[in-house]
Design a protein that fits this description.
- The chain is of the alpha/beta class.
- The chain folds into three domains: about 5-125, Alpha-Beta Horseshoe (Leucine-rich repeat, LRR (right-handed beta-alpha superhelix)), CATH 3.80.10.10; about 200-300, Phosphorylase Kinase, domain 1, CATH 3.30.200.20; about 305-485, Orthogonal Bundle (Transferase(Phosphotransferase), domain 1), CATH 1.10.510.10.
- It has 13 helices and 20 strands.
- The chain has helices at about 35-40, 140-155, 175-195, 195-205, 215-220, 260-270, 305-310, 315-320, 320-340, 385-405, 420-425, 445-460, 470-485; strands spanning about 5, 20, 25-30, 45, 50-55, 70, 75-80, 90-95, 100-105, 120-125, 210, 230-235, 235-245, 250-255, 285-290, 290-300, 345, 355-360, 365, 375.
- The strands form five sheets. It has a six-stranded parallel β-sheet with strand order 1-3-5-7-9-10, with no helix packed on it. A six-stranded mixed β-sheet has the order 11-15-16-14-13-12, sandwiched between helices. Strands 2-4-6-8 form a four-stranded parallel β-sheet, with no helix packed on it.
- Helix 3 packs parallel to helix 4, helix 9 packs antiparallel against helix 10 (about 385-405) and helix 12 (about 445-460) packs antiparallel against helix 13 (about 470-485).
- The longest helix has 22 residues, at about 175-195.
- Keywords: Glycoprotein, Leucine-rich repeat, Membrane, Repeat, Signal, Transmembrane, Transmembrane helix.
Length: about 500
Amino acid sequence: MRLKGQFPRGLENCTSLTGLDLSVNEFHGTIPLDIEKKIPFVTSLDISFNNFSGEIPPSIANCRFLNVLKLDHNRLNGRIPQQLGQLERIKTFSVANNLLSGQVPNFVNGNIPAENYADNIRLCGGPLEECTPPRKINWKVIGYTLSAVSVMVTLACCVPWVPVGEKKKKMTTAAAIIMQMIRRKKVKKEELVDGFPMQETEISKLEKFVTRMSYIDLSIATENFSQQNIIGQGQMGTMYKATLPNGWCLAVKRLHNSQQFEQQFMSELKTLGRFRHDNLVPLLGFSIELKERLLVYKYISNGNLFDWLHSAEDKRKILEWPLRVKIAVGLARGLAWLHHSCKFHLANLNINSKSVLLDKNFEPKLSNFGRARRSLAAKTEFLESSSVKEDVYNFGIVVLEMITSKYPTSTGSSGRSLEEYVSSISTSSASCTYDAIDKCLIGKGHDDEIFQLFRIACDCVQQLPKRRPNMLLVYEMIRDIRETQVLPN
């Protein structure tokens, strides 16, 4: 339900509450320390797939009627209270995908499987690996180390004075060793800054907005990334349809070369993971394991716009003009929000008919933010930049593609492509003509609307970027056209 806020403390007024399921929402903050006073009689508590943080309060152990306790896929840290092991009725307990560490409780009744503890910082005990006892101090090793350091310092101090002009020529063995140690230490520090640990810190911040999922679970859901489950191919990766045990469907993008597309992967996470809009495809999760990079989206049932316009003749006939203009309005609305949000400005830089997905109601969902560029809202010059104007141009191309039914490029098509057509009208002094409009759209009662939208699209593909309108104006013009057409005379 996309519910937000902290744990609802008013639940204490529901004095007969025995089951509480807040899973798969956007709750944040800590679990109340006095939770046993809020829900004393609850038998099932599920707050999984949220953004709860902080430690698990030991007072949950006072909810002595608990049979089910699901805390997985949150941001909980610290240790799991050992008191939870005394819950005599517990049958299901899960804390997977958190930031927990230490020994897991020893439950008196019920065997908790190892996967219910998966993807934490470091948990041990129970079905997991045995906890490592504290290491004993090896005084002999420390003594040898101190002795070696003393010898090196002594040798360094005994180095005879060398004139400035000869310093580069002479260096004792001891001094060389010390310099080598300093260099090694410096290199290791740089590796920590530029390497994986720094990236992992950045990803951990993004986990507040996007759920980190198990690679094994996603592999099972896609039948080990079977070819039969492929629903799309792109430059960045292959898209698979994943079916969960409860019947829900997801779309999983598996990157072709994780190292090559690491920057695009992070851009997608930072953008779709943090910004939500009805005309953006929802990003639900991600997975990082070894060289594998997976992005998990909501499954959009009607595929992409390109296939509806070009791939199958029967589909093309179904996509009548009212649906096409609905797609244009929704796409313009989404781009106007990205470009003119009061908190930020963002350019997609990858808009085409293949990146426009259509849900069951043919509402467009913009995808592919691997090249996206973001700016703070205070930087107004961003709205006049080439990045934003590129989005406007590409939007015009998509609208012309819907109006003309021409292929965007000459590849795989006969006759002049849309790309060649736009190039010809951009380099000539003549304005756009209507010769290119798909004849199957004409004469069905929508001609005025088609011609008006055609003019707007031509404005968007002006050769000089500064002549192109901004997306907010484009959206308002298209919306006005649509509203005028549906109003009664």
